[in-house]
Amino acid sequence: MVTPVNDPPQQVAYDSKVEGNIIITRVDAAINWMRKNSLWPMPMGLACCAIELMATGASRFDISRFGAEVMRFSPRQSDVMIVAGTVTYKMALAVKRIYDQMPEPKWVIAMGACASSGGMYRSYAVLQGIDRLLPVDVYVSGCPPRPEALLEGLMKLQRKVEGESSLLAQKKQMVDSLA
Amino acid sequence: MTTEATADTKPGSGTADGGSAFLAKTLDGLGKLLGDDLAATIEFRGETSVSVASPRVRVALAWLKDHGFDYLIDITTVDHQGEALRFEVVYELYSLAEHIHLRIKTRIAEEPGEVPTVSDLWPTANWHEREAWDMMGVRFKDHPDLRRILMWEGYPFHPLRKEFPLAGQPSEMPDVAFTGVAPLEGGPFVTHSGAADTVAREPRAKGES
Questions:
Q1: What are the residue boundaries of the structural domains of chain A, listed by start?
Q2: Nearest chain A Cα distance for residue B170, angstroms
Q3: Which among A61, B159, B168, B202 has the fewest CB atoms less than 10 Å away?
Q4: Residue B152 CA to chain centroid, in angstroms?
């Protein structure tokens, strides 16, 4: 029986000053873990759903339990756009423009019936779902959805972020840009 | 036995006779002012409507403003599609002192489709007239700022006209806005007005609830 007590490589992790402070994982998993627990929302509040969005942010429902309490009113600092409310045609291109200003990676939650499908507004003035302009990741049903429903949607989005191969996607982009 | 409920007392009236004497006096004065241009006076369920020929409507409204009807509640328009005088502009007046309403109506043809503005008499008329122009396409002569108020400048339709479909019309203004046609049949949140009972009439996703 040979105990390699003095073998230098193993001393990094075991029986050293940093013992217990090292986690071994994939870079993708680490990045996704950081991303999903700090999804900063762009609160695109357009109608009554925005009231429920505010309630979700307030103490009773406390969206900060999911790391998403940092409502950024600048798209440059946001990760996820929560489209909360009726998107009129007059507003539609403004929403698109704000989405375009968000840096990658970015996600979209369509909160409520109106943002998902136009809702009860089958009329000349309302865009029939924000997915006609933006790629939507999570649809939350309800008119308006309760805060729990929005949190469920947020957790769904977190699960989606967890499964992304973020580094590979970046690497592919880099290789493509060099080619 | 109550003493307050006499036959012609309306709730909220400022005077004992419910303002009916004041109204009669006003209508009498208006008739003398306009002559034949005062086409008709209709009283229906305690509401009085006066039809005025469109060239004199501004004269009538200015006179009414000086004779007690100092508050313009609203301006609306009605589309009588297919008739020679297609549009009807309706002014809802109110007397703050006498607590009575008076409705002034005037009919105009589609072309030129124009009535004189009253935005210099009542500043509130500025936005009411802009809305009437935006939604119905009625123009107001000498309006200081007759732009659309709800839709954007350049939108090609007037959505509350009868020929405009509820679902909308496609339009495109690059970098400003676009519109599409909303699917009406079979979708969720569409009421079924001809259905037999309230459950069937209720807007819901069919087959899913």
A1: 27-178
A2: 9
A3: B202
A4: 22
**Chain B residue with minimum CA distance to A143:** B189
pTM for the model stands at 0.77
Q: Where are the domains of chain B?
A: 20-159, 165-209
ipTM, interface predicted TM-score of the complex: 0.72
Q: Which of B159, B183, B190 sits opposite A124 (nearest CB)?
A: B159
Residue by residue, pLDDT tens for chain B (209 residues) are 444 444 444 444 456 677 788 888 888 888 888 888 888 889 889 899 999 998 889 999 999 999 989 999 999 999 998 899 999 999 999 999 989 999 999 999 988 889 999 999 999 999 999 999 999 999 999 999 999 999 998 899 999 998 888 788 888 888 888 888 887 665 655 666 677 888 777 766 555 44
CATH of domain A27-178: 3.40.50.12280
Which residue of chain B is at minimal alpha-carbon distance from A116? B188
Chain A residues lying within 8 Å of B157, measured CB to CB: 124
Sheet containing B71-79, strands listed edge to edge, beginning at the edge strand earlier in sequence: B38-44, B47-52, B100-108, B87-95, B71-79
Report how far residue A51's alpha carbon sits from residue A85's, in angstroms, rounded to the nearest whole number: 10
Closest CA of chain A from B167, distance in Å: 5
A95: nearest CA in chain B?
Answer: B177
Q: Let me know: does A167 contact A27? Beta carbons within 8 Å.
A: yes
B20-159 is classed CATH 3.30.200.20: no
Chain B residues with CB-CB distance to A121 below 8 A: 182, 189
